[in-house]
Design a protein that fits this description.
Radius of gyration: 28 Å
CATH topology of one domain: Ribosomal Protein L4, Chain: A
CATH architecture of one domain: 3-Layer(aba) Sandwich
CATH superfamily of one domain: Ribosomal protein L4/L1
Strand content: 5-15%
Order of helices and strands: HHHEHEHEHEH
Number of strands: 4
Largest sheet: 4 strands, parallel
CATH class of one domain: Alpha Beta
Length: 201
Amino acid sequence: MEEKVKKVKTQEVKLNPKIWKVPFNGDLVAQVLYVFQSNERKGTSSVKGRGEVSGGGRKPWKQKGTGRARHGSIRSPLWVGGGVAFGPNNRNWSRSINKGMVRKAMCIVLSERNKNNSVKILNTDSKQELKAIRDKVLKDVSSRTLLISDNQQIRLALRNNKDVSVHTPMRVNVKHVVSCKQILIDKEAINILENRLTHGK
């Protein structure tokens, strides 16, 4: 017998048009995502140069009179077992970007999700609503879901589901929103998110 799941009640909240009705700008979103991904990249690849490879302390043969090409060390990049010329060495991939551009990109992505009816406002105050949200989200895993809430109980209930990403309104970013097709936002988190993106204006 199929288990019945309570329907999640959505809330009607007045949204700030400065965040939820922003014209699309794909170039800006792509630029911000590029910086985010670059900052997550770890420059761990490293090789040894000719000064770091062991051995090669003396000149292999004298400079003149042997008929062979002159060499100063057997650890030259020209030799087998020598150092690497121009190799990677803990490269720093981090980049910087204007905070205003990041906020604008966030508003653009949220506006697109809202235009496609992929944003739902929820009430997580009551325990019944919390259980309904948890059961609904856990059952409907056909699409990646982002839940924005400060409620610790709902975060603990959904943290083990790989298809659900739970973030607070102060920590959610463009990459989180882009990677999810459905967005559920706690009505208490709406004001926090809007104040963060508009500085209360």
